[in-house]
Amino acid sequence: MANKQRVVVGLSGGVDSAVSAHLLKQQGYEVIGIFMKNWEDDDHSEFCSSNVDFVDAASVADVIGIEIEHVNFAAEYKDRVFAEFLREYAAGRTPNPDILCNAEIKFKAFLDHAMRLGAEKIATGHYARVRERHGAFELLKGLDPLKDQSYFLHRLNQAQLSKTLFPVGELPKTEVRRIAAEIGLPNAKKKDSTGICFIGERPFRDFLNRYIAKEPGPIKDEKGRVLGRHVGLSFYTLGQRQGLGIGGVRDRGAQKGGNEHAPWFVARKDMETNTLWVVQGHDHPWLLSPALRAQDASWVAGHPPAAGALAAKTRYRQADAPCQLATEGGAGFSLRFTDAQWAVTPGQSAVVYDGEMCLGGGVIDTDAFNVP
């Protein structure tokens, strides 16, 4: 490139962003790395790895031959992401902080910072793709179906996508690892992070307990029998099977038909009575939803898609489920599925697809299942 385009890459310390930076440099861009520090409350604990991650990111920058800057967005993260995260949990919902983090930090605070550095584009290590057609930008799935992260990016808008590159979106993860090893990156074999966005991997209930008061209450089955006590509704999510503490009561009042050994699942949370409702069996009717309602919709194109046959995910690790979309007044929409969906969870995101194209989505509502 005669006049090199400046691209600022978010270097997390992981292999995906490292290979993204390498690929962009190979393509002739002027590449600058940014390491984002977004969590400070217990930065020196065993679970917060930001110091280790920064060392990895700096080592990557050294090998690739690019500058790296350390930027602190902890105040923005706490205000825009973590506060909402806690509000949702306190209300009995199960939020997805990674989605909010992408919309508010990685593609807003980080993007604004990159533009101040004179960047024309930003890049991240997400497995997704951007396509421009007829002057509009489309968000596409990553080509590796096991790593596609478009679900977490569905709130990105036209302005954000127009400034964004996803260099590894065309590659399978195995190829990314191979490139990293080939060029001698120190983090080529580093395992993928699975913790809360920027907070790290930690015992989640212990972590949440520092911020949300425990309000114990009854655990009841569908017949209203009290099976035990929960530690607080905020600490459970629909479909949860582990950690209920009622394994020893399976035989009590066993139903005919040999169901006494079936596992228990969280099916409902009643905030008014502080009751946790559980059912036995993965396919219990209380766990299946033929339809849902979502609010706070965000559409990639800037407007809702036409009503009709599409597909959707109600959680990340899920195959696209055929459905009918109907938009409602304001920022709401409803989905009616061909096959009932399992453990549809208020606070999580329903993300809508048309083939490989991610159209956007919204937050599953508390009355998610009251769809006419």
Helices and strands in order, then pairings?
Blueprint (H helix, E strand, L loop, with lengths): L5 E5 L4 H12 L3 E8 L12 H15 L2 E6 L1 H17 L6 H20 L4 E3 L4 E6 L2 E6 L16 H5 L1 E2 L7 H10 L21 H6 L7 E4 L5 E5 L33 E7 L4 E6 L7 E12 L8 E6 L7 E7 L5 E10 L6 E6 L2 E8 L8
Parallel strand pairs: 1-2, 1-4, 2-3, 4-7, 8-11
Antiparallel strand pairs: 5-6, 6-17, 8-9, 10-11, 12-15, 12-17, 13-14, 13-16, 14-15, 16-17
Could you name the CATH topology of the largest domain?
Rossmann fold
Structural class: alpha/beta
Number of helices: 7
Count of discrete domains? 3
Terminal CA distance: 57 Å
The CATH C-level name of the largest domain is Alpha Beta
State the shape.
globular
Bin the helical content. 10-25%
**What's the total count of β strands?**
17
N-to-C SSE string, H for helix and E for strand: EHEHEHHEEEHEHHEEEEEEEEEE
Q: What would you say this structure looks like, in words?
A:
It is a single chain. The chain is α/β, with parallel strands linked by helices and 372 residues long. It folds into three domains: 6-204, Rossmann fold; 213-282, SH3 type barrels (Roll), CATH 2.30.30.280; 288-364, Beta Barrel (Elongation Factor Tu (Ef-tu), domain 3), CATH 2.40.30.10. The chain is built from seven helices and 17 strands. The chain has helices at 15-26, 50-64, 74-90, 97-116, 158-162, 173-182, 204-209; strands at 6-10, 30-37, 67-72, 121-123, 128-133, 136-141, 164-165, 217-220, 226-230, 264-270, 275-280, 288-299, 308-313, 321-327, 333-342, 349-354, 357-364. The strands form three sheets. It has a six-stranded antiparallel barrel with strand order 12-15-14-13-16-17. A five-stranded parallel β-sheet has the order 3-2-1-4-7, sandwiched between helices. Strands 9-8-11-10 form a four-stranded mixed β-sheet, with no helix packed on it. Helix 1 (15-26) packs across helix 6 (173-182) and helix 3 (74-90) runs antiparallel to helix 4.
